[in-house]
């Protein structure tokens, strides 16, 4: 699939709690969103970079919500990249692309027993409205076309492949099970085949 080229509009190095990262912004992204890339120094210059494509989750990333595993996955990626190098693409795709308010509406439906995908559909939205054209544009603007992808989601691997990004390895994240997110993780395992162990936690 041919996609329009994007360019890096600015890069600034920002000190973090441990080490630093280069924060890049972009021009020409397909959805005109304000997505950013964080590039951490590579341990081996010839390595294929480890990449995390992370969709924004205000409740999980900032407020440590226990209803999902987003904040845990982001923390894991940041720790890994500080130690080994890599690239974090932080995409402004709240609630799998439905937005913050709709995500909170979906939470209300989940409290009535619907899973995260059913709740989206009951709101007249897609179960997952994300697309990864901007992720591919950002990587190509950074001169990256082959990656090792840090994800449990096989659809990210498939989608990036159709956009010209070769995923040479899928590296799974940890499984961050809490009582509050058990149904959420179970839905991801069953509905979208996320790599979350051997299934014994979700199918019993």
Characterization of this structure:
- This protein has 204 residues and is of the alpha/beta class.
- The chain has a single domain (8-93, 130-194), classed as Rossmann fold, CATH 3.40.50.
- It has helices at residues 58-62, 70-84, 94-97, 100-110, 116-122, 133-141, 154-162, 182-192, 200-203; strands at residues 7-15, 20-27, 36-40, 50-55, 86-91, 146-150, 166-171.
- The chain has a seven-stranded mixed beta sheet with strand order 1-2-3-5-4-6-7, sandwiched between helices.
- The radius of gyration is 17 Å and the shape is globular.
Task: Give me some keywords for this one.
204 residues; alpha/beta; Rossmann fold; seven-stranded mixed sheet; 9 helices; 7 strands; 37% helix
| Structural class designation | alpha/beta
| Strand line-up across the major sheet | 1-2-3-5-4-6-7
Major sheet: 7 strands, mixed
Number of strands: 7
| CATH class annotation | Alpha Beta
Corresponding CATH architecture: 3-Layer(aba) Sandwich
What's the CATH superfamily, by name?
GTP cyclohydrolase II
Task: Give the end-to-end Cα distance, rounded to a whole number of Å.
Answer: 40 Å
Average the pLDDT over all residues and give the rounded result: 90
Q: Please mark out the parts with pLDDT under 50 across 5 or more consecutive residues, or reply none.
A: none
**Beta-strand level of the residues, as a percent range?**
15-25%
The helix content is: 25-40%
Order of helix and strand elements from N to C terminus: EEEEHHEHHHHEHEHH
Shape: globular
Question: What is the gyration radius calculated from CA atoms?
Answer: 17 Å
State the CATH topology: Rossmann fold
Counting DSSP H or I runs of 4 or more residues, the number of helices is: 9
What is the count of distinct domains?
1
């Amino acid at each position: 699939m041919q996609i329009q080229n994007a360019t890096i509009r600015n890069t600034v190095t920002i000190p973090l709690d441990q080490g630093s990262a280069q924060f890049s912004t972009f021009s020409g992204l397909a959805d005109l969103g304000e997505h950013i890339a964080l590039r951490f120094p590579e341990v081996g210059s010839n390595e294929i970079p480890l990449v995390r494509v992370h969709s924004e989750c205000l409740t999980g990333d900032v407020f440590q919500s226990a209803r999902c595993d987003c904040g845990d996955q982001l923390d894991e990626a940041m720790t890994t990249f500080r130690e080994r190098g890599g690239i974090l693409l932080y995409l402004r795709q709240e609630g799998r692309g439905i937005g913050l308010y709709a995500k909170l509406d979906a939470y209300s439906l989940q409290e009535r027993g619907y899973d995260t995908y059913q709740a989206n559909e009951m709101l007249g939205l897609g179960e997952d409205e994300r697309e990864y054209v901007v992720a591919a544009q950002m990587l190509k603007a950074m001169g990256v076309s082959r990656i090792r992808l840090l994800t449990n989601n096989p659809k990210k691997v498939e989608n990036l492949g159709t956009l010209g990004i070769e995923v040479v390895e899928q590296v799974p994240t940890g499984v961050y099970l809490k009582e509050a997110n058990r149904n959420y993780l179970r839905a991801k395992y069953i509905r979208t085949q996320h790599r979350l162990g051997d299934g014994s936690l979700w199918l019993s």
